[in-house]
Amino acid sequence: MTGFYQDGPQLENQYHDDGLLRSFLDRVLEGKARKEVENDLARFADRLLGDVGEMAADAEAHPPELVQFDAWGRRIDHIETARGWQELERVSAEEGLVAIGYDRKLGSASRVHQFAKLYLFNPSSAVFSCPLAMADGAARLIEVLGDDELKQNALAHLTSRDPAEFWTSGQWMTERTGGSDVGRGETIARADGDVYRLYGSKWFTSATTSQMAMTLARIEPPGGEAMPGSRGLSLFYVETRDADGQLNNIVINRLKDKLGTKALPTAELELQGTVAKLVGEPGRGVANITTLVNVTRLYNAISSVSLMRRGLALARDYARRRVAFGRQLADQPLHAETLANLEVDFNGCFLLAFRGIELLGREECGEASPDESAVLRLLTPIVKLFTAKHCVASASEILESFGGAGYVENTGLPKLLRDGQVLSIWEGTTNILSLDCLRAIDREGALVPFLADIRKKVAACTVDELEPCTRRINESLEKIEAYLPEVMAEGRASIEAGARRFA
Ligand code: MFK
Ligand code: FAD
């Protein structure tokens, strides 16, 4: 065939290509640690363009299927996943994608190393980062609240580098009654000797193929009624299969037909006497599971910035290949300005998200001051909601920057938007996280240390050219301080109505 054919965008090694990631790592890591992390990330980024990229492509091309019956009519509820999806689990173990955060070879900076690796992995992972997020959150939960048995068994599996031993986890919170208002959940837990048996349904359970899950249920006293509301919920540990490989009295009703995250098996489940172990105090389930949720919310933020960065890398490359009106797009001032604005958004989101990761590492290693812990508490919902919203907006703009090609499935570009859209919905919607900011301020007094932290950073900025920026930031901080007492005087409804703007 003759005539013009456009070259598509190409990706280079995404560690070498990412100046912001490298300069951030230069700032927070030193000497030997910096070198070791560099070697690991550069090598891994090469792998993402090779075998790991192929696994993800296979997982995307062969979405999971639910096989409910065997040839003889027996109910088996087997979720058939692609070979690529299974291999991504093996790679995750080998590469220590969870383990790095728990080996803590670099102390608190191990979280920076781990999340930098996850940041490279996520856009090439077919969203295998989702089961990893929940595995990591469950590991942290068990570290904080688990007994010796859970630490020796589940925690060891979740943080293993041996693919034969490695486990991922589910996080089963959402029921038909509500995913935001978890306290409306109907699942009942009945004591049975040393364990409990769970009865109820879970409406969204991602990575249903995981070996374990953390979930919530209401303990029903013998002959009595379970306590309603979120204070009646307790936290439970569930292994999804028994020693013979049979499902733990779990029925899988169907897989969700979703806009995106196509390779990720998200199912509706019935728990029909599922054996479960109580974790932590009865009635503290919601408060206890937030240890897990606060980790997965940071994963969400890193996923958002990683998709923004992937889109930019592709759009920048394409702008050098595509010609319009006599010039490469990259040399069209307005196109260049459009991409520059996306880059600014990405830079801000990246630095905000990785500030959360730095603080997470410090807190887990016992290095965080009480003020830093309060900053982390408030920063977590902020980075989750802010980066997710920017990711969706950015993905839309990135698609447009390719013109019609951005809307065509086999360019791979629409996936950025489809997979980006979920990031503002799961793990707490934007509104719920805005309200969580108020909770962190009300209950943990997080605003004062949070604003002080920003002021400290602004004061440390001695670059003259940035003076107009630092002045504007200081003015904004004053406005925030003035806003709260003003709106509080108007009552709770006004505070909540303004929560999103405030966040
Ligand atoms: C690749 C990307 C990575 C992500 C992959 C993830 C895939 C899985 C997707 C999922 O979506 S899993 C399901 C996620 N679900 C949620 O995030 C639930 C959203 N709803 C909320 O977060 C609500 O705010 C909440 C359920 C917590 C409201 O419950 P309540 O019981 O009405 O709240 P309440 O009474 O204010 O808080 C109960 C306790 O928890 C309080 O402690 P105390 O009892 O000691 O006073 C709160 O302070 C505490 N708490 C609530 N949120 C907290 C928290 N503590 C720390 N951090 C938080 N975020
Ligand atoms: P609702 O809670 O009904 O919310 C509807 C709307 O009301 C939202 O816009 C919300 O912001 C708003 N709203 C609710 N309350 C308030 C309020 N007080 N003030 C202002 N606005 C409010 N859940 C799991 O537990 N485990 C999983 O593995 C899992 N995987 C998922 C995978 C995918 C692909 C998706 C899409 C969801 C998944 N979820 C999972 C569920 C997810 O966490 C919930 O969908 C989410 O928390 C919202 O709950 P909901 O769908 O019940 O919406």
Describe the structure.
This protein is α+β, with helices and mostly antiparallel strands and 503 residues long. Helix content is 53%, strand content 14%. The strands form 3 sheets. It has a 5-stranded mixed beta barrel with strand order 4-5-9-7-6. Helix 6 crosses helix 9 and helix 14 runs antiparallel to helix 15. The chain is globular, with a radius of gyration of 23 Å. It starts with 18 loop residues before the first helix and ends with a helix. 43% of the residues are buried. Bound molecules: decanoyl-CoA and flavin-adenine dinucleotide (FAD). It comes from Cladocopium goreaui.
Tell me the layout of helices and strands.
Elements: H1 19-28, H2 31-49, H3 51-61, E1 65-69, E2 75-80, H4 83-94, H5 99-103, H6 110-121, H7 129-145, H8 148-158, E3 169-172, E4 188-192, E5 195-206, E6 212-219, E7 233-239, E8 250-255, E9 266-279, H9 285-321, E10 323-324, E11 327-328, H10 333-364, H11 370-401, H12 414-421, H13 430-444, H14 447-459, H15 467-488, H16 492-497, H17 499-502
Parallel strand pairs: 3-6, 4-6
Antiparallel strand pairs: 1-2, 4-5, 5-9, 6-7, 7-9, 8-9, 10-11
Helix pairs in contact: 2-6, 3-4, 6-9, 6-10, 7-8, 7-9, 9-10, 9-11, 10-11, 11-12, 11-13, 11-14, 14-15
